[in-house]
Amino acid sequence: MNNPPARLFALITLVFAAPLAGATDYVVATNGDDANSGTESQPWRTLQHAADSVGPGDTVSVRAGDYAGAYIENSGTSNAPIVFKAFDGESPSITEDNPETPDGINVEGASYVTVQGFTVNGRSRAGIRAATCDHVTIRDNRIDGSGKWGIFTAFCDDVVIDHNIAANTGEQHGIYVSNSGDRPIVRNNTIYGNTQAGIHMNGDISNGGDGVISDAVVENNVIWDNGSGGASGINCDGVQDSLIRNNLIFDEHASGISLYQIDGGAASTGNRVLNNTILIAPDGRWALNIQDGARNNSARNNILLNANSSHGAVDISGDSLDGFNADHNAVTDRFTTNGGDSVLSLSDWRSATGSDSNSFIASSSGLFTNPGGDDYSLTSTSPAIDAGETLADVPNDLLGVARPQGAGFDIGAYEREGSGGDAEPDPILADGFD
């Protein structure tokens, strides 16, 4: 799929909640001066001066124009976060790395900081980075063409990465959550054209900590055209007890969702992979890839399709089968328990594993409204409608539609609205992409 037109990287109007009473609103503008007071009529000039000056509860609004990034070390509090955001209705761009690291905006050792509404293109390493931190929110940013990562976090507990675009990284991943940062939330992001993973989560014990990312929520992301250099749409190395739901992954050139252990401190166990729609490109690997003793994982209500005739729906290693719980999936009729050395049909898979007794073989043309146009909502006659099981962990679909709309849950990321009503809009179109 082609990249969205350049006009779509213009910043959407962003409005952040009013600051707490007693907090200070500051303004940064290209015609400002750091010797000013930082008001709207007397704005500061640089983001770095703002970062060095703010405290809990302060908001920095940045006017349109080109800026060097900032190295942010000051912390807010749970009741008074520090917010860096686009000035209402304007579109600031980060066009130079911050003064300390080869990244656009860097949050280092700080807590309760929000970065919202920036366009960050062509940065040397990461567009936005957050490390040794907690309760950092990265929201509504547009990041394109970073040298290594779009968004990167390390040892950052309770990070929220929400409604960002992360595209076209040169070396690795669109969004990378690393180094034992627990309880990350990665939701509502648009992620495409990255050389390796769309979303990569890696506990990486070599850098300290327990090497495990626990209690992650990865939901409602639209992910496509990643993995030409390997990895997956969603990659999980040392990720445990996490929820992966309502993600649309298509035109992937490696795997769809992978649960494994290479750098992580432990196997990726106890994860729930629910109501995702995954379509692998003709040069891709497996839709769902579970390896390295990744036990007690579940895969339910997913669409797992593959255009590569030598691969298929699920590749799970023998040492990961213990506790594996899969059913009510719409699948390509190819499975393996040994990396593809031998291939099982759905019938053979059921006999060998006891899984997927209510799953069925499907194709894009039978399931989706317009797969040729990248609209993966369900057609009115789709066999995925009402064919899923009721899952308390998935009360809504990718677009926020309540489940179920009919007699039962629909399979995949979409719940078709109404009974025989119009199909839901494709999320890419709904987000303004064409």
SSE inventory with pairings:
Blueprint: E1 25-28, H1 47-53, E2 59-62, E3 65-68, E4 71-72, E5 82-86, E6 92-96, E7 105-108, E8 111-116, E9 119-121, E10 126-139, E11 142-144, E12 149-157, E13 160-162, E14 165-167, E15 175-178, E16 185-187, E17 190-192, E18 199-202, E19 213-214, E20 217-219, E21 222-224, E22 232-237, E23 239-240, E24 243-245, E25 248-252, E26 255-260, E27 272-274, E28 277-280, E29 288-290, E30 298-300, E31 303-306, E32 314-316, E33 325-327, E34 330-331, E35 335-336, H2 346-353, E36 360-361, H3 364-367, E37 368-370, E38 375-378, H4 427-430
Parallel strand pairs: 1-2, 2-5, 3-6, 4-7, 5-8, 6-9, 7-10, 8-10, 9-11, 10-12, 10-13, 11-14, 12-15, 13-16, 14-17, 15-18, 16-20, 17-21, 18-22, 19-23, 20-24, 21-25, 22-26, 24-27, 25-28, 26-29, 27-30, 28-31, 29-32, 30-33, 31-34, 32-35, 34-36
Antiparallel strand pairs: 37-38
Q: What does the model show?
A:
- The protein has 434 residues and is mainly beta.
- It has a domain at 172-434.
- Helix content is 5%, strand content 34%.
- The chain is built from 4 helices and 38 strands.
- The protein has a 22-stranded parallel beta sheet that branches. Strands 3-6-9-11-14-17-21-25-28-31-34-36 form a 12-stranded parallel beta sheet, with no helix packed on it. Strands 19-23 form a two-stranded parallel sheet.
- β37 and β38 form a beta hairpin.
- The N and C termini lie close together (10 Å).
- Residues 1-21 and 419-434 have low confidence and may be disordered.
